[in-house]
Amino acid sequence: MSSQNQRVEFIQRALQTHQFSCEPITSDASFRRYYRVAKGTEASWVLMESPVDKVDNTPFVALNSVFTQQGLNLPSIIAQDEQCGLVLLQDLGSTHLADRLDTHTRLHDYQALLDLLPNIAQTPTSEWMKPYDADFIAMELEIFHEWLVTKWLKSSLTEQQEIQWQNVKSRLVEVMLEQPQVTMHRDFHSRNVIFHQSQWYLIDYQDAVQGPVTYDSVSLLRDCYTRLPTDEFAMLQRYSFDKLHAAGLLADMDFSRYQYYFDLTGLQRHLKAAGIFTRLLQRDGKGGYLDNILPTLDYILEAAQKYDEFQWLASWIRHDIMPKAKVKLSAK
Question: Are 277 and 150 within 8 A, CB to CB?
Fold first, then answer.
């Protein structure tokens, strides 16, 4: 991380003043840290600080321009220091979708965000979007096996289970790649959109890639941090289909096929996410995501048990992984 002196000097250069405050903001799941910089009561900004040996801010800066040119709302970049890993951003406040879930506007908020999906999907690809290919998708799935199963639960697979797990991975990779490929935010959920001056802004967009068309709708509607009531989910899932279909992004896919792709894309995403939650604890010392593990495993179980080809996965999650996870979590 940059030193305090480097942060102060950077802010002074960017704002042309020595009169400011700089207070830490709660960090996210990445290696980045955030600070709110204020100049009295006149104005405020957000300082993003990244360890240069672990995080490259170039995609964050470059994709900001790509998405902004597409007409999407993102925080403006005021100044940056590449060598110190510092970026000064427009302050959008702190009202995320997650902060508005108990309001009467919830359904309207979700619909407004789903309205953004075609625009995000049609964003031109960029050299700063990493390849989202078979190897990368399989690597994401292996996070679950390595960090949750092996390292957290201290479990190992039998030879037959290993064969079944490899079959699950292969099928999910196929499903991800056979869908129409579009630009996806990749972390489009309730904590990564901010409501500012009556508009929605995207944050944490630096991992955007070209990938399966259902991915961002899964991220939002099967959010690891909050669960929609069944009737609202069904309505919003159909709404997401209608929006993507009207934009010509689903080829000849009907709603039934869309639901199938949605469920299996959710399997891939949630397996990865459950693994990441345990990796954050074990590798990074961040235990704030443990409460999200069981809800995420619930999503995996619900999707897997709907399809004959994933009955082994459903049984493994229900009878082996979830009971062990509950014991582990009860002892935390």
Answer: no
